[in-house]
Fold:
Amino acid sequence: MAADPPLVLDVDGTLTRPDGWGIDPRVFDPLREWDAPVMIATGKAFPYPVALCHFVGIPELVVAENGGVVYTGDDVFFTADREAAQAVAEEYRAAGYDLGWGEEDTVNRWRETEIAVNLEQPIEPLREIAAAHGLEVIDTGYAYHVKDAAPNKGDGVARIADHVGVDLADCVAVGDSINDASTFDVVGRSFAVGNADAAATDAADEVLDDVHADGTLAVFDRIRDSS
Structure:
């Protein structure tokens, strides 16, 4: 029987429950039992995917903040500076808007390279302010991310793959959003779950019928059935 291929997995929209919120616990055992590296590539702040790996019980191979932070398991790389994103947030607030996460803002508290804004907040003034600072705003379906345009998940995945000694052509990726398109571009095989946005479905090799974790679990089953 062939070995499992290395995996690259998004979190929100990809490992989530059918309603789209919260990690579906059905993914835990398959990930723990996977006999190849599993890379988590997400827009979430750096501590979140690290904690996910810790609690699942897999090595911490993480691309966080849409490529702004990369952890190879040995070294942490920061590929962008939060200073410009923070300036955008301050100017956005000064214009009378809000990031939308409440006073303590645990969504952004531990971010190293970008700022996330609640989808209920107006995006056009955010885009204008970000552009004036040389940044972009991407809508992942879970938040607006104010980020440097250069870093992306695909570059982070390539860095981890090189470090752990896996061939990107052997990797299988699953995702749901525009920020997964760069990952799909660098791996050998890519799947967009059924709830994916247009950018992800256009970039993926295959679009799944099932949504969220159901789609991802279907990929696991298909890969193992064909091994």
Summary: The chain has eight helices and eleven strands.
